[in-house]
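Entry for coenzyme A complex. Fields follow.
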Amino acid sequence: MTEEIQYKSDLKNVDWQEMKQILEIDRFDNGRTPQQLQKSFENSYASVIAYAGSNIIGTARVLSDGVCNGYIVDVWTLTQYRRQGIASNMLKILIEQLEGQHIYLFADEAIDLYTKLGFKPQPTGLGKVVGEWLQNDSLDSSV
Ligand SMILES: CC(C)(COP(=O)(O)OP(=O)(O)OC[C@H]1O[C@@H](n2cnc3c(N)ncnc32)[C@H](O)[C@@H]1OP(=O)(O)O)[C@@H](O)C(=O)NCCC(=O)NCCS
């Protein structure tokens, strides 16, 4: 029997420590503390967290001005749950909240995940880290 996966956008009861741990275990941790994870999700336009039972097994979120531009980040499915459509479902939940907007994202693998949802390659992405990665006032304990 296929395990039921739940998709939640309400961030009220998220265990950010658990999210940090599972990202570390799955080698998709980018260094954020649990507090920084919480702040980055709470400051997003929309987020989706996928659960198997009470366990976090996927994330996706979008930054947006609510008018014309959205940027999708933190798309991740726990390794043992991949290729079951979970990332596609999370992306669909975000996309349906972005009517009329241009969505951009950066992908270095699994390009078909996005092309199957209608994304087209759009050169050229440019990026820069200002100062030192994650070193800013998000490290303050008060979120
Ligand atoms: C990329 C990732 C989010 C995909 O999650 P997923 O839940 O397995 O994705 P889905 O099951 O919705 O995949 C849908 C389709 O996308 C494509 N796809 C997914 N993963 C792929 C991969 N690793 N390589 C190539 N195509 C892939 C396939 O066409 C797939 O359809 P199929 O399974 O019928 O062949 C997951 O592999 C992951 O977390 N990887 C590590 C983190 C990462 O790279 N995130 C993306 C940052 S841009």
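NOTE: The domain at 5-139 is CATH 3.40.630.30 (Aminopeptidase).
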